[in-house]
Amino acid sequence: MLYVPFLKAKNLNLLYRFYLNFSFVSILITFVAMALLHTFGTAAIVMLVWFKIITMFIFMSYVNSYKQKEFYYYRNLGFSKLKLFTSALTFDFALFSLFMLITYLFL
Known about the structure:
Blueprint: H1 9-19, H2 23-40, H3 45-66, H4 70-76, H5 81-105
């Protein structure tokens, strides 16, 4: 059996709490991208992926600068900024990819 210490329930709860900082904007961007994919078709996929990547990095820089004191909380619990941002971006992009695939299949 594969043991991944990073995926404990406590750790997932902390990652979820960090993801809530920007989840509304992220899901809003995903729904806008889904609507644009539905409108313009598959020709817009590359543009939409870059749109998502760029806007998420802009918002991550916002979170990095305005939520600076919260990082002490996560750091005390064993999460570095790199681990927080990597897991949040990975989850967000996986969710984005899933919704884009669903939209593409129902075009």
